[in-house]
Amino acid sequence: MIPSEFEYCRAGSVEEALDLLAQKGPDAKILAGGHSLLPAMKLRLNSPGAVIDISGIGELSYIKEEGSHLVIGACTTHGDIAKSTLLSEKIPMIVEAAAEIGDVQVRNKGTIGGSLAHADPAADWPASLLAGEAEIVLASSSGERTVAAVDFFQGLFTTDLGENELITEIRLPIPDAYTKSTYVKFEQPASRFAIVGCAASITRSNGSCDKVRVAFTGVSSTPFRDQAVEQALEGQAPSDDNIEAAAEKAAMSVEVMGDHFASQEYRKHLAKVYARRALQAVLS
Amino acid sequence: MASIIGKSVKRVEDKRFLTGKGNFTDDIVLPGMTYASIVRSHHAHAKINSVDISQATAVDGVVAVFTGTDIANAEIGGVPCGWQVDFKNGDTMKEPPHPLLVADKVRFVGDAVAVVIAETAAAAQDGAELVSVDYEMLEAVVQGPDALAADAPLVHDDVPHNTCYDWELGDKTATDEAIENAEHVTKLEFVNQRLIPNAIEPRAAIGHYEEASEKYTLYTTSQNPHLIRLLLSAFVLGLPEHKVRVISPDVGGGFGSKIPHYIEEALMVWCSGQIKRPVKWTAERNESFMTDTHGRDHVTKAEMGFDADGKIEGLRVKTVANLGAYLSTFSTCVPTYLHGTLLQGLYTTPAIHIDLTAVFTNTTPVDALRGAGRPEATYLLERLLDNAAREMNVDPAELRFKNFIPPFDGVDQPGYQTQVALQYDSGNYQPVLEKALDMVDYQEFRTRQAEAREEGRLLGIGFSTYIEACGIAPSAVVGSLGARAGLYESAQVRVQPTGKVSVYVGSHSHGQGHETTFAQVVADKLGIAMEDVEIVHGDSESVAFGMGTYGSRSLAVGGSAIMKSIDKVLEKGAKIAAHKLEVAETDLEFANGQWTVKGSDQSIGFGDVALTAYVPHDYPEGLEPGMDFSSFYDPANFTYPFGAHIAVVEVDPETGKVKLERFVACDDVGNVINPMIVDGQLHGGIAHGIGQALYEGAIYDESGQLVSASFMDYTMPRADDLPMFELDRTVTPCPHNPLGVKGAGEAGTIAATPAVVNAVIDALSPFGVSDITMPLTPERVWKAMQTQTKEAAI
Ligand SMILES: Cc1cc2nc3c(=O)[nH]c(=O)nc-3n(C[C@H](O)[C@H](O)[C@H](O)COP(=O)(O)OP(=O)(O)OC[C@H]3O[C@@H](n4cnc5c(N)ncnc54)[C@H](O)[C@@H]3O)c2cc1C
Hints:
Chain A has about 280 residues and is of the alpha+beta class. Chain A has helices at about 15-25, 35-40, 80, 85-90, 90-100, 105-110, 110-120, 125-130, 150, 225-235, 240-245, 265-284, and strands spanning about 5-10, 30, 50-55, 65, 70-75, 135-140, 145-150, 155, 160, 165-175, 180-185, 195-205, 210-215, 225.
């Protein structure tokens, strides 16, 4: 449980962090909450030459309304997000997802930026960020770019994040008043990560479902928006039968993962069950 | 003064534990100490071609590196097995060596190949990473029954069929006949899965050789330091026992996994002798998963025959017990004398037979785990009973009432002689189940269950009425059964001149609260304040001798040794008191810490008598000064706690997830010294038992990799998985020990597992499900519903 030797650098600002990243090169690792990186280092699964600690950068920790968006700083902890009344009013699935992560200690240290960068296939965040059509802001010493969440997640522990880039912000469009959302999760009993995490966000008008966004985490190696489910319900009335029919289409287009806690077959079944539960919760 | 026996006195040890002031092995830092990291095999079965340590020795701070070859060259024996079980034909069991470091081939993932010792733990780990071992892969055998296959790879080349021994108990002919002639036979084939104990404190050991005195000290996380000293000095390293001191300081949980003598203990002592400096090793959590002895791992086929009235006629059991790669200290007796002998349960079954084969596999060694053998026996019996009730359409509670052994107190009525060697001490079984049924409001539940089914909800109730053998153990009995140690206990009561009392006990507390319970007993019997009593344990230099703590033995056996010494104190005290008060001893009575002349107000206190013993100016003639008594207590019999546990569950029909709604238990552990501590032991035990039913299980893949080697992959029960336990008890004192106590440390674990599984099977009864393999993960429960639904549809 002792990491190999590494150099420790503490960044006081985003600028300093980017400089250090450029300077230390690919052998350096950003350290935020440390709740994914440190266990990996202690088990010597990851042995970076340098660690750049960004946890003290106050300017990366915030939740605020900015025009048509809610924006969250990358170093905001899961715990702060879980407690945000602003988010809870505007996009409840975000708060619900945060509250599902780990336990109090994990939520009080772990950050949304760290979770996204790490891209554990069973992490909670991706589902609600995909369903919320989030964008992720990435900065490097050569500038800033914004990627849509759907393009950010690329595979098992793999994202669009460049070697010398830092996640600085998560941007979520504020939905209109007719939109409701939720996040539901079937936990892996040991780790309590998601075996199936399903986020649903639905905008209704005149008794039909105008816009439906359904996304999964835990089901496949890459989190995904499930357009088959979305399309099955869009334009339909929110009846039990319609919900059931839409949920039946869950996880049809992806390669479903299997492990000793949930085989492919069972996970696929759970995806349908949790899709239905999420849709029911939003539409009830 | 009111007695403090039977009072829920707060645990005196908790203050130091809860404020982080405990003194655990890893907390100990000795001058000049070095740190060890052990190079372990990543393969389950492989030949070692060569070990290259050159890069490791070059690491800055590395002091020494030793390999299996060094151990072999030093001609050090392996760690021994403490219990001999013979083959049916009389041949001695196979006992392949378990060297401190292996030189020829590795036999499980975690097998120790080399040790790197360095100035810091970090340097030791850096060095260990650079030891390069050239392996030649061999095919591995993982599951017990597979080890018996004709073409199975051999774990030890000289152990044919991987068989350690085969064994039987009971009357085979009578049992075969009973099953043959039974009106109804309930059959069950199941796996009692392998568990990983997961004490919160990882194992640790410090070896300390002092050149000046030529003494060796071992600090270790052990449940039985004296036993470790005996094995270490006499069997492994050949050191003179009086030059070896073993200290087992605060220990953070054992559950059986800290009974065995482990290679790391002997290795640290030997290494310290080599480098003449203290050497510390502390297991990393994944080492704990890989190398703490595992528990259970039985594959069993059981049949229970009934007559037309539902009376049990016979029980036939065939089991393969997986012992892992090497024999551990008590691994051989767990599936035999702690399992086969418990198959009578609480029932009058007239014919019982068990046939058991113990095998080696390429897995972590298996030894005692909370309950050790008794959970396996209870699981088998209680699952059979609930299944039989369903098959015969009898109420499961009724079926038990029909078969209970009638009450006997072991005083006026003799103990109950079982078909499987044991004689129960005292028992009154019907009341525990009656009480538990009341507590759970059984009739109301059945109504609620029927209503819920109408709504598509799956509620279930499961029963478990258990007995266990505790207070381990009468030496002559276990000796005749193959134990290579006596299982008595020792206690020394030293009354200090000021009347304060130090008690040196051979049992060892690692969570059980001995410092409280024992002090309660001593304070009560001597009529002094609890604060005036100190319980000392865990150091072979201060405690005369002891066999340690396991098998719920500490109070029943160790407490009895304390009682014997207290009797000696009081006997001598009476002599001194009689002298001081100038009366005959027979004129005195002792109460509340005073000797009083009967029918008068003349008295003398315990403190004055103690002082007189050490300042014997005015003293009985011929009496030795001082007041310090040691006693050894060898129990006359095991003790036999029993009880009834009932679980109520709801199963999510869509996901198979089991929610434990209620857990009700009525236990009889004999007399109770501290109800809070007993309840605490039961709570922990029940959680442990529920863990086996629903969550826990070691998973090996086919190549012998331990897939569940972290808390991310091995599910422990957690507080939010569990309902508030509802406990009650009856009291049937043990007739053969002075405190009338039976033991409570393992009861919960033994009882809870089948209650929970039975409840899930009951919930799924509309699907005709009769077994689900433990742990009952949501997927397994869901699959059981699918299979049965499909079959019903065909
Ligand atoms: C006991 C436990 C239980 C957990 N349970 C859950 C759970 O139920 N659900 C769940 O989703 N997660 C869970 N987690 C993981 C937790 O959410 C972590 O906090 C999260 O995965 C990583 O965030 P962090 O801030 O700790 O990142 P760190 O561990 O500091 O870093 C993780 C990775 O991200 C990189 N990184 C961090 N911040 C940035 C950034 N701003 N820009 C670029 N790269 C960055 C690091 O270099 C590193 O590679 C659990 C963790 C633990 C220890």
